[in-house]
Amino acid sequence: MKDWAFEAREHLRALSVGKEVTFTSTYSVPPTDGTTRDFGHASINGIDLATELLKSGWAKPKDIKREPTEEDLQRRALESEAKAAGLGLWNPDGPPVSLRYP
Questions:
Q1: Does the first or last residue of the chain, that is N or C, have fewer Cβ atoms within 10 Å of its Cβ?
Q2: Domains of the chain with CATH codes
Q3: Chain-wide mean pLDDT for the chain?
Q4: Which residue has the higher pLDDT, 93 or 3?
């Protein structure tokens, strides 16, 4: 797969710079190195960032080893729509030549 890191970062930056990002923790993992790790949802003005990144083709849902939930299925559907439309990292032409890393 082609390297889309720069474009994905720029898309997220355009969505978030200058805006208030809200993070809602859904669970925490006990610290192993003195740092607690929180997992949850990030949103801007009530819009879920993970959903926006999936819709625009700049993210992939995590592979899961359990029975998928309704949310998992919705995220897979968003990924499929982005693939079908050739959005983001699913662009068949790849990143612009001037932005490719050596």
A1: C
A2: 5-28+37-99 (2.40.50.90)
A3: 87
A4: 93
